[in-house]
Model the fold of this input.
Amino acid sequence: MRLFRPRAHDRPPSGTRPPDPLHRPPGVVERMIARVEAVPRRRLYVILAVVTWFCLTFLVGMDTRPIASLGLGTSVQDYHLGSVARSDVYAQRSVTYEDPVRTEAARQQAASSVQPVYRLDRRVPSEVEAKVRGFFDRVGQIRSSHRPTESRVSEVVGAAPFHLPRDVAASLLSMSGDDFRSVEEGTLRNLSALYRSTAVAGGSLQQGHPSVITLSEARLRLAQASGGSGEVGRITGILSRDFLQPNYVVDRAATEKARREAASRVRPVMGSVQQGERVLSRGEVVDREKLAQLKALGKADSTKPWTALLGVALVVSAEMGVAWYFLERFRRRILKTKVATRLVLASALTILFTAVARAFVYFSLNPYLIPLAGFSILGTILLGPRMMFLLVVICSVNFGIIGQNDDLLTATLMLSSGFAVYTVVRADSRMDLLRAGLFVAVVMAVVTFAVSLIGGTGLHVALRQGGYGLINGFLSLMIAMVMLPLLESTFNFLTPMRLLELSDPGHPLLQQLLRRAPGTFSHSMQVGNLAENAAERIEANALLARVGSYYHDIGKIEHPLYFIENQIGRSNPHENLSPMLSAKILRRHVKDGVELARSWGLPEEIVEIIAQHHGNTRIEYFYRKALKESQKGGEAVTESDFRYHGGLPRSKEAGIVMLADSVEATVRSLEKPTPKRIEDIVSYHINSKLNDGQFDRCDLTVHEIQQVGDAIREAMIGFLGPRIEYPEALPPGKPKPEPTKHTG
Done:
């Protein structure tokens, strides 16, 4: 199937030539591919890297809330504290999260368990002394006034910084001046002595200290130190006790710091949500704990969009860097033909499947259904296993990010898709691909089941996840089976399945060859069998060798009667042509074959076999004829005019087809082929082509060439066995193979 080609039943406009059934104009896709292949490599790589980076960054890091706000799709509700759930919310994977409520309670408990931190306030004794002196100065002034007694008592009570009984105030007014000074000095002395001997704590002291006493104990000591039962001693004791202030006080800043440190040392209390567990019920209000669970599941916005996008951009940049290095290092090994087209396809498929992954998450589908294995199957067949391993790793990382940073999803996709690469790499037919896809589905189910168990889910939930994995495998197989023929034909890639389709003798181009050049068709089929047998002998691509042989002489369709295999019962037109013109006509079939193959969209590997199946060998028959005629006419003969111009074979398969073609054509020209003569012909062609350097550009070693020759000889003898004349009938002496007569 070829896209965008003119349909066969379309009639040409009036006045124009009818369409040529043999030559087809290139389609839109082919012209586009040709333009892509013509772009300078460095420029193409830069453009591809930039476009891929931009698309992947956008798809992986995009914020879908604006799209959802437009009513497009059923995006996940963006929850926040106090919001009401519009529907039930279930956990699509098991997660652990920091429980904010339990963590805060634990930290408060740790802070409250910290004892107050005390410090000795050295300013308190001097402040107390100043208060005592100020009080007595004021009382002295009141004593010297002449106001009524009750009024002065009230003033004394008001001058005290504490509640002073009125009888004490009255005593301070009525006592003598000596007693008044004795009370003042006694109060100052008692307080000073106490502060020098010990520290006084204000509140309840939780931990005892030998140099610290409580305020009540200090007042008791002051009462005992006042001595005497007289009025002076009683009032001194009262004032000393009431003027006393604690100088061992709580250090609030240090206490708060200690409590903060104790709280910070408490590790977060973790909660967990199991896969399949209902996190929110419809109508339920989101509290702090539920919000934490939703954030852990990626259903609540916990990061700023631009910071997340920046992180994604850096990750994708790193991926592009790895891919660039990988292609620079191994491009010649993994991409041999259509490099630009394959890179464009790799980029396009990566972007396409990333968009699919984004759609799965956007529409709240289970992320374990993302069919990355389908991409893996397609890429392995179209791009090769080495490149596909790289793309699988990149996509798995990106899909894990899309799936709310689900590491287990990344592991699942990477394992199953990597296994798909290994399974599909040896698939040679659609049935092999089907079997491999079914096996991948089973592996996908097992891996998903196992990863679910690792994530802490129960057996029931893990089995359900395994079912999702199985569905993923089938979905991937369906995608691969549908897209593979389309991509094979559109991009004209060589795959085993494509080769099988081309090997069908009912292919329209082979049918054209059969109708227009039946002798060439028979020769091509025979060469195909020989080449396949030889390729199997050295473990080359036997199917490519066979299919390449089928089409190697397709250019003879243009002028079939100029080739001897098609001249049965007809005169030889070369008898009336000069040797140079005959050689030119024979050379022409290579060029015609290449043009026909490209117009019919044959894979480039087969086009190369067509172009190289003669190498640059000399057309021996007409060259010798030209030499013979030049001796009579005296005209100079240029050897290059009698050589093919298709280029030396550049692959093992092309070298095999070249040898099989020449051997088959020579043997066909024998009237009585025998095993010995066939063996001599094979040896002759091997030696002549080795000496002529025809195998210099292909990867065949001398040993492999000998193995190829043996395989061709054995096959030829097997084909011609019933008509072989046995050795005893041969004339004595070594038979000398004759040069091929304008075989093409």
Summary: The chain has 29 helices and eight strands. Confidence is low (pLDDT under 50) at residues 1-16, 736-744. The radius of gyration is 50 Å. Residues 459-491 form the longest helix (33 residues).
